[in-house]
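Morning run. Coffee first, then this:
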Amino acid sequence: MATRQRRNSNLHRLFIPIFCLTLCAYFYYHSMIGKYGLGSHQQTKERSLELQFKLASLQKQREELENRVLLLKNGSIERDMLDEQVRYNLNLLHRDEIVIMRYKD
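And here it is:
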């Protein structure tokens, strides 16, 4: 009867530590660079700041529009404003008038 003898390899002892190190490296990589990692968190903060500035500008624009609407309410329409709106929307002019329109961005 023949028996086969082999020498025990050191790789069997290193399997679990190598597996654990690989697993830790995987989670570290995804915690730093992944979709929900720290890099993504920084981008989310920057996007949040951009949206807050945009919200502030939109709120300011809304307040301006509300003030213009208040001028038109309660039957107290100012003649100058009414004249300006009519000329702007209907493109009406007198023959001897020159109008320079400035568009707001």
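Residues 12-76 form one domain. Good start to the day.
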